[in-house]
Amino acid sequence: MAVVVGRRPMRTVGTGVAHHHAGATRSGGRRPASRRKSDSGRPTGAARSSGENHVLIPQGRVVLAPLTRQRSYGNVPQPHAILYYQERTTKGGLLIAEATGISDTAQGYKDTPGIWTKEQVEAWKPIVDGVHAKGGIFFCQIWHVGRVSNNTFQPNGQAPISSTNKSLKPAVRANGIDVATFSTPRRLETDEIPFVVNDYRVAARNAIEAGKRHPITFLTPDILIRNILNYPNTGFDGVEIHGAHGYLIDQFLKDQVNDRSDKYGGSLENRCRFALEVVQAVTDEIGADKVGIRLSPFASYSEAADSNPEALGLYMANALNKFGILYCHMVEPRMVKLGEKFETPHSLRPIRDAFKGTFIAAGGYNKEDGNKAVSTGYTDLVAYGRLFLSNPDLPERFEIDAPLNKYNRETFYISDPVIGYTDYPFLPSDV
Ligand SMILES: Cc1cc2nc3c(=O)[nH]c(=O)nc-3n(C[C@H](O)[C@H](O)[C@H](O)COP(=O)(O)O)c2cc1C
């Protein structure tokens, strides 16, 4: 199944890797995503098109940003996530799942989900089904933390892996209270890197598998058919490669961290090599039309800054064009620090102009500046994090200009399966 997310329609994509066509966009006669008027962030009338490929176009420009919630006990997604994601699903809307570990070395936080074991893949299925049942488009953010970890999260208490062996200073966690300590990482040997790239590839395949139902032979044909009809044979609609926020891919991209002297370090081209090998592997595995990537060239989280973020962003945008991937998701320069917004003179504009696929911007947006960013062609889509976390019906609230629930930072990462998770109120139905 091909998925198209707000693609500017007439553009040719890719270099022969898993081409898809934007048939619905063309046949629907819609204007390019970046030119269409969006005054509410509400569905703009696009729908599934039938034909050889099922093409989905997100309705509305309000994307759920990936949000770690640390409620996947023992790294296994839990049933309470069904309700959480379903609450935030609108027909045709795009949701990006929380960062999800690709392997047993990928973890750095308690109770974040994974997608490398059979149990985890099985556990994702009802969550993916829940989103699909409401007509949502669901991408899985695949993640490796690299050095933002310590031995307690690692198999056999080993050192976390990274591009470097430089360690991180202890840091206050995103909840503003706890202090995280990090173990000295182990610099990956050059010949180990393909194995890590392969972990991303397998995780991507697992994500696409995560909704697949294998026929159970003892069912009667009638039940079997009903089962298949009720649960379409599809997993996540795609994956978002987490290349942002100081995690493993960013540890290769940024010159403050990457101190390698092999083909993965030094020049911009070399520092981007790991990220692009991951993109290549994932694209080969599941098709470019199911692949997005998130990057934060301007951010400096976890001591991962770059001396020339604009050049880095531009290099990546141009390099990504060669793969024809579905989207590039960039974090605004103003999000220099986690959760804080500092206005800066920098802009994503040149990077957005260079990238030929769908562009998603995130970081500090409200309804007004989000709509402005879309209507001026600054981005195709806007991803909302904290506002969507605390307002499960955010698109509707934007549409009718309803007041918003305030988010409670203190419950972002607690383990409770309900509090701060699925208890943010919806608008009363008579509003
Ligand atoms: C609770 C929380 C968890 C987050 N988890 C992730 C994550 O898993 N992956 C990611 O790329 N960004 C993550 N972020 C960053 C958000 O996706 C988003 O970029 C950030 O909150 C800024 O957008 P906002 O101002 O709309 O909240 C997280 C942010 C918050 C507040």
TrEMBL record:
Domain NADH:flavin oxidoreductase/NADH oxidase N-terminal: 59-211, 233-403
GO BP field: jasmonic acid biosynthetic process; oxylipin biosynthetic process
Record bears the keyword Lipid biosynthesis: yes
Any one Gene Ontology molecular-function term assigned to this protein's record: oxidoreductase activity
Region Disordered: start-end pairs: 1-53
InterPro entries to which the protein is assigned, alphabetical: Aldolase_TIM, OxRdtase_FMN_N, Oye-like
UniProt keyword terms in alphabetical order: Fatty acid biosynthesis, Fatty acid metabolism, Flavoprotein, FMN, Lipid biosynthesis, Lipid metabolism, NADP, Oxidoreductase, Oxylipin biosynthesis
Record keyword Lipid metabolism present: yes
Cofactor (UniProt): FMN
Record's compositionally biased regions (Basic residues): 18-35
UniProt xrefs under PANTHER family: NADH OXIDOREDUCTASE-RELATED, NADPH DEHYDROGENASE 2-RELATED
Similarity-based family: Belongs to the NADH:flavin oxidoreductase/NADH oxidase family.
Name under which the protein is recorded: NADH:flavin oxidoreductase/NADH oxidase N-terminal domain-containing protein
Protein source organism: Oryza barthii
